[in-house]
Amino acid sequence: MRKDLPVLIVGGGMGGMACAIALHRAGVTTEIVEIDPSWNALGAGLTLNGGALRAFAQLGLLDAVRQAGFASVGPARTCDADGTVLAEGSTAPLFGEDIPNMGGILRPRLHEVMRDAVRDAGIRVRTGVTVEALAEIGEEAGDHVIVTTSDGVQAPHRFVIGADGLFSRVRGMIFPGSPRPKFTGQGCWRAVVSRPADVTATWVYSGQGAKAGFNPISDDLMYVYLLETALGNPWMPQEQWLAILRAKLGQFGGHFAGIVAELDDHALINYRPLEVVLQPPPWHKGHVLLVGDAAHATTPHVGYGAGMAIEDAVVLGEMIGRFEDSEVLFSAFTERRYERCRTILEGSVAIGELEMALAPIAEQRELSAKLGAVIRQAI
After folding, report:
1. Contact between residue 21 and residue 62 where contact means Cβ atoms under 8 Å apart
2. pLDDT tens digits for 218-273?
3. Cβ atoms 267, 242 nearer than 8 A
4. What's the pTM value of the predicted model, to 2 decimals?
5. Is residue 361 classed exposed, middle or buried when 0-12, 13-18 and 19+ CB atoms within 10 A define those classes?
6. For residues 168 and 67, what is the distance between their CA atoms, to the nearest angstrom?
């Protein structure tokens, strides 16, 4: 690898920024190109389980993430549709004494935290720009890749990281026959509401064909989510989202009466169909590597989509100093990451299938516990 050249990261979302930060901490010069001219993030709340928070700690960002969000201090609760508590999670530290078992944050706030860290590190970012062409250069010519970007710039890079999400342009460029995102049969609603004082951790309510819950994201706010069967992937006009969500949440008891009453025309509501993609090995071709959702986009059932992307960055930053050749580095990286990501992704999809099949809550919790044990393993 040409160590005198910068690494180019395609995508300025959480995975891309995490890679830039991790490589910078490892002494590697990086650049980011981000297609969004405003370099912002949309969405409502985001659950961060202990594995994700552990990865942020390894990036040196845990304190900033905790200050911008909410670290759970009470036990997680599983309830029936009426709000009767069926089970409570452990409050004993599972990921380290200083790492919460669960947390939550507003997605745009997490984006700001990471964007500030990128800027503080002096990492170059070009917005409104994406990759247009990749030209491999062999060892006899310097062992690097020439990248042409949409702003007309052509420049050499040590290697390229495709961190451009579920519908990755980079994935399609290096693997034209790669799997396309697959709809799982479920849809996910999210909204932001006020946090009652007694909600200090995530609560999950299970109903008929739907599961709802809420998770604190600040001292004042929590985000509400609803996972539901959405066979046929129906399209719902955005102007109808408020009425639809209020009606769907009306089947649940407990705190949901107050939540439904609070939702109004000013509420931050988001809906998306749940889609997944798993790129089979290899995750690289030549000097181009896929990470995060570009390689393994999962569902939110165990709160680990963002966590897996952050883990990718931590592992890549840890491994880069051990290898002189990018092919060997990328192969070793994929070998270390693939089975973990596959297990969590396929397990998350399986939980969704149990929900759609109206399987007993105990069966769903058993599978969640098995995935939790995987997540607690060192990365």
Report:
1. no
2. 999 999 999 999 989 999 899 999 999 999 999 999 999 999 999 999 998 999 99
3. yes
4. 0.94
5. middle
6. 31
